[in-house]
Amino acid sequence: MLGRLNSIQSLGAVDGPGLRYVVFLQGCPLRCAYCHNPDTWPADGGEEIEADALVQKALRFRPYWKNGGGVTISGGEPLYQAPFVEELFAGLHEHGVHTALDTSGVGNLAEAARVLDHTDLVLCDLKFLTKADYMKYCRGDLAQVERFLHLTAMKQVPLWIRHVVVPGLTDGVDHLRLIRDKAESLPNFEKLEFLPFHKLCIEKYDRLGIPFPLRDTPAMNDAWLKELIEKL
User: Fold this and answer.
1) Pairing mode, if any, of strands 70-74 and 47-50?
2) Residue range 64-90: average pLDDT?
3) Quick check: 149 and 159 in contact, CB under 8 A?
4) Cβ neighbours around 129 below 10 Å, total
5) Other beta carbons within 10 Å of 146
6) Do the Cβ atoms of 137 and 128 come closer than 8 Å?
7) CA 192, CA 202: separation in Å to the nearest integer?
8) What is the chain's mean pLDDT, rounded?
9) How many beta carbons lie within 10 A of that of residue 102, not counting itself?
10) pLDDT tens, 13-41?
11) Which of these, 23, 51, 120, 194, could form a disulfide with 88 (CB 3.0-4.6 Å)?
12) HEC profile for the chain?
């Protein structure tokens, strides 16, 4: 099956356990205010590739996947190409490769369920906690995300929750506590990652001629984020 590929990071260390072969797919229905990959939005962008060909490309890096490494599929939104990811993950599992799905939890639930049958770990971006904020800042539906999280629990797929901490938007201590409480309430929850907002993506927006909504928002450095987390 053909999929549309944006880019590959052959030795990633922050998208799941161990060293990862991180595949960024093309296409995303969301328009998050702090998105750092606007080049992945168009469904017809990138390049076409067969699922089996991508499996073979990934396997070249297998010697590096010690201590729990493997392949992570990101985007864009990987569930936008769910049938392709299903075939890709099934092919990787035939070779005993650990698979991780980095997703915002949006997409067709029936297709997502088939992807989860071949998924060893879900990294889910929980962006906001209210329907109004999801719609305002992501053009997304919180209820859809919650249904996906429930599906991961039903499928008993280990879950890491990720949340971008944006100054003036999602950096309140009470808000971060609620994110933590929500994550810990999920039966398959394993880990919570607070990710600092950065603006390294501005060059992409400028090149594409797209306004960056948070251009005037200061970046969140590691020391600032650590100080916030210590207050939880």
Assistant:
1) unpaired
2) 96
3) yes
4) 15
5) 15
6) yes
7) 27
8) 97
9) 25
10) 999 999 999 999 999 999 999 999 999 99
11) 51
12) CEEEEEEEEEEECCCCCCCEEEEEECCCCCCCCCCCCHHHCCCCCCEEEEHHHHHHHHHCCHHHCCCCCEEEEECCCHHHHHHHHHHHHHHHHHCCCEEEEEECCCCCHHHHHHHHCCCCEEEEECCCCCHHHHHHHHCCCHHHHHHHHHHHHHCCCCEEEEEEECCCCCCCHHHHHHHHHHHHCCCCEEEEEEEECCCCCHHHHHHHCCCCCCCCCCCCCHHHHHHHHHCC
Question: How far is C-alpha 229 from the chain's CA centre?
Answer: 21
Name the percent of the chain lying above pLDDT 90.
Answer: 98
Check if the beta carbon of residue 194 is closer than 8 Å to that of residue 176. yes
Asked if omega into 209 is within 30° of 0 (cis), the reply is: no
pTM of the predicted model, to two decimals? 0.96
pLDDT in the model for residue 19 = 97
Q: What is the rounded CA–CA span in Å between residue 90 and residue 94?
A: 6
